[in-house]
Every structure is written in structure tokens, then in C-alpha cells.
Amino acid sequence: MKRIFLIVLDSFGIGEMEDAAAYGDKGTNTIASVSASPYFHVPNMRKMGLFNIDGVSCGERCAEPSAVCARMKEASKGKDTTIGHWEIAGIISENPLPTYPEGFPQEVLDRFCELTGRGVLCNKPYSGTEVIRDYGDEHVRTGKLIVYTSADSVFQIAAHEDVVPVERLYEYCQMARDMLVGEHGVGRVIARPFIGESGNYTRTSRRHDYSLLPPSVTMLDQLKEEGYDVIGVGKIRDIFAGKGITEFVYTQGNADGIEKSLAYMDRDFEGLCFINLVDYDMLYGHRNDVDGYAKALTYFDEKLPEFFAKMREEDILMITADHGCDPGYTVSTDHSREHTPFLMYGRNVAPANLGTRDTFADIGATVLSYFGITPRFSGSSMLGEKLTEERADS
Questions:
Q1: pLDDT of 198-253, one tens digit each?
Q2: Domains of the chain by start residue, with CATH
Q3: DSSP per-residue codes, 348-394
Q4: Separation of first and last alpha carbons in the chain
Q5: Buried-most residue among 158, 166, 174, 238 (CB within 10 A)?
Q6: The pTM is what?
Q7: Is the per-residue pLDDT at 85 higher than 90?
Q8: Longest Cα pair distance anywhere in the chain, in angstroms?
Q9: How many CB atoms lie within 10 A of CB 90?
């Protein structure tokens, strides 16, 4: 029974790409920034070969890595969650998704107000915690929705749960998702419910993302077509708008995501368990919290032996990322255009350093090749003959 557990450490970049300057990201290096923290300790990923990857100059290389390792280049135009995950699954996006550094056009807002019957506040790029602090009181008083964006392709709607019940907020987000297509087809519409009193508003865990439908076939679609299980943990279901997913579970932070992933390892299924751990990006990268980011990576690394212990003979564990978000880059708190790591471990996977790959889509091709499926997208498998040889230490 073949199973792959593919874990995305959201925003764990390993150094700027060649075109980083065009994205305003010259000099970004997430792994270098977090490795400078005294809280950074990842001996298990080191053993897998994390510091052996091309271009990684921090950390101590491992003389005999236990896994396949590679540096991944993003072939798509962009540096956000949707574009990155889509490329991992096989979609190379020729054009970046639209962003709104000056806020959304008036015609977009007018149509949204018409659909919801409510006015809007803000309409600027804004921090999610600061926007409820600055506009929360007016929202509570007037019932107007707080609409804001970021450097990413997102249309975010914040509302107090006592003013707009969460289910109603979700309805408004679906209206926005149906409206925002074509020229204004943002990657995600995001519900951002919050609670609390004036001066002490806090976001709740009932965030919900409404993504664009993936425009072409992905590894998820092909696996599902062939009758395999495709399990999404975290926001995977939302990123792919449910397309190609057979089962999913939402999570409340990294620790919850890790525990739910470990629980799936105890279950019998055949196919892919696709996992997103978002805290690196959401809680630490965007807030320039180097120590918090380092602690979160250290915690994940501490849990890796539990993953290893639960792996069955034909299981494969993959670890990667979708973009960067360098917490030490004080010029910006945005995502960064960086290479990402790839680590692949299994009892019958021979360790190797595969250098630098041309596209994240090689991951999707690798997943499909393990199940004997020919990918209907660009991308080359990283398995090759490696899987036919038994590991020397098995």
C-alpha cells in the first residue's frame, strides 16, 4: 500500500532566486535569517540533507544524508501561496495573479456593496491585526465590512462575529469569489472573522479561504481519477478550491496540523496526504519574528522522529515550501521570491543530491510517477531508478 506524505513548510525559502530583484526581494534568504537565531536547531532535517542543498551556506553539511535533497526553482511568475502550491501540483503560471497596492478599483467595491447590501471600510493593503485595531470600532458601529488586501493577490474581508455571523461572512466571501474573475481574478478571497471589545480585538481561527479554481490538470486530479486517496491537511483544500481532493481536514496552527498528519499515518489509505503548515508564514515571516520562526522550525524537526517511526515500508515523506517570507528582511514583511528546499525520505529511496531543479512541478511529477501515472503537465520525476534499489541501511 503506497502512501506519500507531502509537507509544505509555508514560506521556508532557502535563498533568493535569480530574478528576486524584479520582485523587490534582492538579498532575501529565509533559512539564513532563521538559522542566526539561538532557537534554531534542526538536526533531523540536517541528517536528511537540508544543509547540503545547492546555495545553502548556513548550517553544517551532513557527510552521509539519509534522504534525497534538491533546490527547487519557481518557474511561475509570482511568489504567493496559491501560485506556489499550484506549481508543486503541476501548474506553471505564466502570468502573476493581480495585486492591488493602491486598493481595489471603485467599480469592484461598488459591485461588492451591491451584492452584500453593506458598505466597506479601508480598501488598502494592511496588516490583518492592525486593520481590525484601526477600523474595528467603525465596523461595529456601522456594520460596514472591512475590506483590505496585501502584497499578495487577496481580497480579505474582516468582520466581528457579533456584527456579522460567521456563516453570513462566508456567504459574502463566496459572493466576492464569484465576482472576482477575469481581470480581477485574485488568487484568494479570505474571510477574517474577529471577536473582542474596542482596543482588544482578536482574530479567530475560523478564517476561510476561497481560491480560484485551478485552471488546468494537477497531480491531485490525476491521482483522484485513478482511484487514489487525496487527503488535504490545513488549507490545502482551500488552495485548490476542493478540486482533486477526496478528503480534507482544517487545522488550528502548526501543532494541530502535525498531530492530524501523524493521525493519518495510523490510517490505512493509498495515495497522497498533502499537508500545509502555515504558521511560519502567517505568524512569523510576515511579522519579522526571527526567533518565533526558528522555534517553529525546531518544533517541527523535533516531531520528525515520530513521522519516521510511523512510516511503513512503502511510505515516502516529502518536505518542501511554496515561497519565502524572510523574517530578517526588514525592508518588507511580504513574501519573498526564493528557492525552496526539497527533501524526500523512504526506506527504499536511495539518498542523492539532485542539484537545482527547474520547477516545483517536478514534485508533482515525482508523486505521480511513484503511483505509475504519467503526468499531464511539465515536470520531471525525481525518483528515476532510486526507488528500485534498497537503501543500504534498510
A1: 999 999 988 988 989 999 999 999 999 999 999 999 999 999 999 999 999 999 99
A2: 3-95+212-388 (3.40.720.10), 106-210 (3.30.70.1250)
A3: T---EEEEEES-THHHHHHHHHHTT---SSS---S-TTGGGSPPTT-
A4: 18
A5: 158
A6: 0.89
A7: yes
A8: 67
A9: 28
